[in-house]
Design goal:
This protein has eight helices and seven strands, in the order E-H-E-H-E-H-E-H-E-H-E-H-H-E-H. By secondary structure, the chain is α/β, with parallel strands linked by helices. The protein has a single domain, classed as Spore Coat Polysaccharide Biosynthesis Protein SpsA, Chain A.
Length: 233
Amino acid sequence: MKLSIIIPVYNEEQTIELILEKVLDNQYSNKEIIVVDDCSTDKSLEKLKKFKSNSEIKIIKHEINKGKGACLKTASKFITGDICLIQDADLEYDPIEHVRLIKPILDGKADVVYGSRFKGYGESRSLLFWHRIGNFVLTHLCNFFTNLNLSDMETCYKAIKSSFFKKIDIKENRFGVEPEMTIKLSKMKCKFYEIGINYYGRDYSEGKKITWQDGFRAIYCILKYSFFSKIKD
């Protein structure tokens, strides 16, 4: 099965080259990498141009900054793989996990696999206590409405069969896309799996972008898409 790896990028000049090198070396040969630069104002795009000659990489540029959800929506138009996997452009998530993450799909067990930072596997940097509490609240609220038992709904690492991903009519431009996707996939009766992953979190001085406002938006999104969203045929 072909793997489509989606990488949203916004002002990640310090990490984008290394993350692309790691993704290219992720021990899965049948893949494409779809990079969406979200109108970066640093040297991210300049560094991306170094990879233009690589046939595995597609680079798309937004003319205005829109957010992670908008990047995923843009990337969905270019997917040719059977499985899509979301990879942040920083170094919080290690692409060495890709093969483990998609294995339940390759084995025919799952439609969706989430990489959980809280399942007790490997290494995890300890920081940002209130982010952990916020994640706990949002994940359990989402579980309440979806009848899932996820431990980490807000994780970046989501591997999804492309046939389901393309049915998600993404509305959220920013981080509200995480509960939006989860709720819409649950309404498609997808088979969800979770695996534990390594996590190398960063703080705001290192470029972390999600804020408390995104947490309140996530609550709104959980309620909105639980009660009012419809799935495309």
